[in-house]
């Protein structure tokens, strides 16, 4: 690969100069080893180790030295959030910005799969994709099942099964030994292939395929099938992208990993995979590990966290379920606390934490980054136990419902924001897909793909392009102006779909105008008599906080999903016994893995809340670890440290 970039790309002077420009310190040899490595490797990076900054620096150095006009760097991540973070860091330098255009590719694994494998496979069959979306697929599959006489026997057979609707709504393709097979959500066909129901099940899936309607999972199966039929594509991909960097590798599914192995498995491509396996989402029944499962035994490590100090690092090290790692805390030497409550003081837990944060964390830090309150469960289940979720501690907490009223104007505002950020193509695509979803509610026809729209202003396609432009550039504050835009859309849809609108009443909610309101966060209101120094906290799930950095974090004891155990209680027992987390019961491992994610967020204060009767047996051991323990007796009790 040395001919693709300048040989002095990673010399010490260049690395230090660009690191200084980006405001990065490189005090540890492990950081230099990763930056300067040009071989395939796995990097197990502890929380707060600065892996995203290192990735940005390494990519900027490569962009600075890259010489090939036709071969590029491929950067893949599991989520759009991670992709956007990398993209944001690259825009800081001219060298980084070079990687945002051809011949390079930066995107999610799903986007890569669609762009280079699944979509070409479908185009070779003459199929134009209308949508890739699980919910849109489910709606269309169930509608087809109910309305089309061709699937009457299948509909009857499914009516005798409790999971009948799900079998159709979540049907997916699986590539089995080179064959593309329609299966249920568990990956197996729900009927014998030779039966009438089995044939109709496969035919319904094929009918949706011909219409260009797919689930996300389908695209991976189509890509794998395409690779099976054309194995030379793997060699072509490895040639096009001789350097591949995979971020957040721990979240990659077995299906995604298997496909990536096939695409970039051939020799020639350098594949560097980065992540933290101990933040991997826990699977109850994982498949047998792939030979290439992340991280490989000889993986490099970034064990030093600059987010937090030694106390949080010691706790986190003991909760590394998937791969043992001793984390070094090089950040602020913060506080770890345990708040004990009883049945009468559940509602006082969060206020007590806020007062503790005010007493231990610099006020400006809290104002810039309010205290966070996290729970593994947001709302109560059917169990009678109390407390069992975040909502039990935070009266009035509710999750944000799925919005249907005003869905088009909400999406249009999001598309306008994308356009203003410079991503015009993504904005238009987002808006057109939203219009497609609206059209499906009231028309049996389908909208053409965006690229097939005619450009002549006198045609329906030209009028659609003009409407897209106006939606992306018009003010959306006035309901009158919005009514004019939606009226144009309703006049246009029959011409575009070549089908009359039959259910216009269904469009009242999605086309409704709603005033713009900044999305509120779940803020826990401070009591009226609270100290002036208290900053109200923000509540949410542990899962949603993944990747964040907090000044102060409270982890609430919640009932795990079996309804028999409490997560914080189980973790306290694990820590007190100094038990190897990887050898604990599966339910305890699950609790430890989630708590690990939450506990590695804060810089200054980490607090746990546990019921006194469950936690008291562990108080002595916890105190010996250097934690402070506080009993919440009354509303005005302010824990001290």
Strand-helix topology:
Blueprint: H1 12-21, H2 29-36, E1 41-45, H3 51-65, E2 73-77, H4 80-90, H5 94-97, E3 105-108, H6 109-124, E4 131-132, H7 134-147, H8 152-159, H9 164-169, E5 172-176, E6 179-183, H10 196-211, E7 213-214, H11 216-229, H12 232-240, E8 243-246, H13 254-264, E9 270-275, E10 300-302, E11 304-305, H14 310-317, E12 328-329, E13 335-341, H15 349-360, H16 363-368, E14 372-375, H17 390-393, H18 407-420, H19 424-442, H20 460-473, H21 479-497, E15 538-541, E16 550-556, H22 567-576, H23 586-599, E17 602-611, H24 612-615, H25 619-624, E18 628-631
Structural write-up:
The protein has 641 residues and is of the alpha/beta class. The strands form five sheets. A six-stranded parallel sheet has the order 3-2-8-9-1-10. Strands 15-14-16-17-13-18 form a six-stranded parallel sheet, with helices on both faces. Helix 2 runs parallel beside helix 3 (51-65), helix 11 (216-229) runs parallel beside helix 13 and helix 20 (460-473) packs antiparallel against helix 21 (479-497). The longest helix is centred in the C-terminal third of the chain and has 19 residues, at 424-442. It starts with 11 loop residues before the first helix and ends in a 10-residue tail after the last strand.
Q: Which features would summarize this protein structure in a list?
A:
641 residues, alpha/beta, six-stranded parallel sheet, 25 helices, 18 strands, 13% strand, P-loop_NTPase, ATP-binding, DNA_helicase_UvrD/REP, helicase
SS field, number of helical segments = 25
Oligomer: single chain
| Shape, principal axes of CA atoms | globular
Helical fraction:
40-55%
Biggest sheet descriptor: 6 strands, parallel
Radius of gyration: 27 Å
Structural class: alpha/beta
CA-to-CA gap between the ends?
56 Å
Low-confidence runs: 284-288, 519-530
Beta-sheet strand percentage? Answer: 5-15%
Strand order of the biggest β-sheet: 3-2-8-9-1-10
β-strand number: 18
Average predicted local confidence, pLDDT: 87
